[in-house]
Write a structure and sequence with these properties.
Number of helices: 11
Strand content: 5-15%
Distance between the termini: 55 Å
Number of strands: 11
Strand order of the largest sheet: 1-7-6-5-4-2-3
CATH class of the largest domain: Alpha Beta
CATH topology of the largest domain: Aspartate Aminotransferase, domain 2
Radius of gyration: 22 Å
CATH superfamily of the largest domain: Type I PLP-dependent aspartate aminotransferase-like (Major domain)
Helix content: 25-40%
Bound molecules: pyridoxal-5'-phosphate
Largest sheet: 7 strands, mixed
């Protein structure tokens, strides 16, 4: 498959912006200030950031066991989703409900969207996907696995079937992979040239930095790199993310704590009458409020009531009405926070 030909003609014709790095003693070429800030002495913020984020990409490549040429850095993975759509165009296909940015950014970029409902087990409806791939030939397919907001992983056989069948780019968004304990798709980079994997530091302690990565075949990286803004990742974020990655042990111990609290939360929620929690491989749990009325509006009202009740007690969760009627989504917090949530929830039910 010639990946270059998948890019829109206007993108194919572009060359990626290259900021040349010329060694020198006195640097007066880029309209930067010569004065830094003493509070930020470890990072020279008076200079433009490394446009290629070499140090950070090197560390990530080692962690992911791929080459730096397989990695592109984003200002969060949101930005990479935007860049992918800008590069390959639509139609973009994705299951629903899922992460909202796939639809929002497709629309922002004026590209067609194809939404394919999940099956009753929240898994991919491969029959529908195969039909769409055949008839509408999506240039991009977005699969969030584990899926936000349902929390489950899609079955890997189905994801692989879609990767094999698609004549476009298949993006497996692994924002929640660190909580799922499985790493099946990174090893497939190099086997499937149309596979793109998205990872982010946002869910594992560094949301404020806005750092995400895409892992893909160098030909795909090269095309997407053309639409990336040259200085998309600022130097403080590059520096802090690199420090955090060097501190692997702390990062992984936090992930382990979240996973063990997720298991406790799910156990406790299963014992709680009036709600139905769904299994999760992520750092959140989706749960349905059993409304008094079995109607859609009854379920919606029940979810609103619990949502507002929790908020009055100072606990903010996500109200999924409109995306997933009758459901709320709770993020796994610290043990004391989870305990307070469970207590408040039980009082309200
Ligand atoms: C949160 C989330 C993202 C966004 O990640 P950023 O790196 O913070 O932009 C991407 N995909 C999914 C599925 C998410 O839930």
């Amino acid at each position: 498959m010639d990946m270059r030909r998948l890019a829109k003609p206007n993108i194919r014709a572009l060359k990626a912006y290259r900021a040349e790095e010329i060694p020198c003693r006195i640097k007066l070429d880029a309209n930067e200030s010569p004065y830094g800030f003493s509070a930020l002495r470890s990072v020279p913020v008076n200079r433009y950031p490394d446009p290629e984020a070499k140090t950070l990409r090197g560390l990530v490549a080692r962690e992911f066991r791929v080459r730096p040429g397989n990695i592109l850095h984003g200002n969060g993975s949101d930005e990479l989703i935007y860049n992918l759509i800008a590069t390959f165009g639509g139609p973009a296909a994705y299951p629903v409900p899922t992460f909202s940015m796939y639809g929002i950014l497709s629309q922002a970029l004026n590209e067609a969207k194809i939404e394919i409902p999940l099956d009753e087990r929240f898994d991919l409806d491969t029959e529908r996907f195969m039909e769409v791939i055949k008839k509408q030939k999506p240039k991009l397919i977005f699969l969030s696995s584990p899926n936000n907001p349902t929390g489950n992983r899609f079955s890997s056989d189905r994801i692989r079937e879609i990767i094999r069948a698609s004549k476009g780019v298949v993006v497996v968004d692994e924002a929640y992979q660190p909580f799922s304990g499985r790493n099946e798709f990174l090893p497939l980079i190099g086997k499937h040239r149309n596979l793109v994997i998205l990872r982010t530091l946002s869910k594992i302690g560094l949301a404020g930095l806005r750092v995400g990565f895409m892992v893909a075949d160098p030909a795909v990286i090269n095309e997407v790199n053309k639409v990336r803004l040259p200085f998309n990742l600022n130097s403080l974020s590059q520096h802090a993310a690199a420090e955090a990655l060097k501190n692997r042990e702390q990062m992984h111990s936090h992930i382990r704590s979240v996973v063990s609290e997720r298991k406790r939360l799910l156990r406790e929620m299963k014992k709680t009458e009036g709600i139905e929690p769904y299994p999760s491989q992520a750092n959140f749990i989706l749960f349905k409020i059993r409304g008094a009325a079995k109607s859609v509006s009854g379920n919606r009202k029940a979810a609103d009531r619990i949502y507002e009740g929790l908020l009055r007690k100072g606990i903010l969760v996500r109200n999924m009405n409109g995306i997933f009627d009758g459901c709320l989504r709770v993020t796994v917090g610290r043990p004391a926070e989870n305990t307070a949530f469970l207590k408040a929830l039980r009082q309200l039910l």
